[in-house]
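Hi C.,

You asked whether I'd gotten around to modeling the 275-residue construct. I have! Everything is below, sequence then structure, no commentary in between.
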Amino acid sequence: MTIIPLLRAATFGAALAFTAPAFAQDSKVVAKVGEKSITRADLDQAMKDLAQQFANFPEAQREARALDSLIDIYVLSQKAESAGMDGEAVMKSRLDLLRARALHNAWFQGEIQPSITDDALKARFDAEVAKAPRQQEVSARHILVKTEEEAKAIIKELEGGADFVELAKAKSTGPSGPKGGDLGYFTKGRMVPEFEKAAFDMKKGSFTKEPVKTQFGFHVIKVEDKRDTPLPSFDSAKNQIQQIMLAEAYAEAVKKAREEAGAQVLDDSLKLPAK
């Protein structure tokens, strides 16, 4: 079920922010089209509805552009009314749908969005984190050379106290050589099997005592660190969790409303497959 085109990014606080000064400001008339008054609230709504249309204009011009478009809309809508177009069956149907969509959005903003509180988001995050599988990951460096003899010679240098990073920079033929052979953290399944097995079998701080052969050549590997994959922070996951919970709340609200309204599809060819 696609809900994104029908949603508006309204916060609970914004939806209820009706103090007396704000209401007075919203009621301020900023333009007139005949007897029709265009208020600050009308302009603010147009700014939201037509945001994409004015995104390429300088910010200082956007309100004026939106008001100009709003005036265009009203002058031509008045022409359409004078011509009796608002009474046509097709137009009545369109207006009915637009009204229904506006009320749909108002219900979403006023009833569904406020139900997804920060406490609810945090509780869902904690529940997801608690059941999230943890994987071990390794941080490693490697020196890649063409022959086994070269690799064995490098191992001897390391056993004699040579610096791994400097040897990698000087001798590795792999793309990570200039970075001291640093491969960063990786989980199982990210590296070729021979390399992966050697790295995960090693202890933190150790290097291979024998060259590891892969399709790319011969590797000397050093394991810098081992850890469980870190969990995301609440702040980094909050928006994603919010979208999931909004979608779930929307689906549940729609399901309940359909049942209460006795909604049914009468044309079998238009029925969706059963979920």
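If it helps when you're writing up: The first strand starts at residue 29 and ends at 33.

Thanks,
B.
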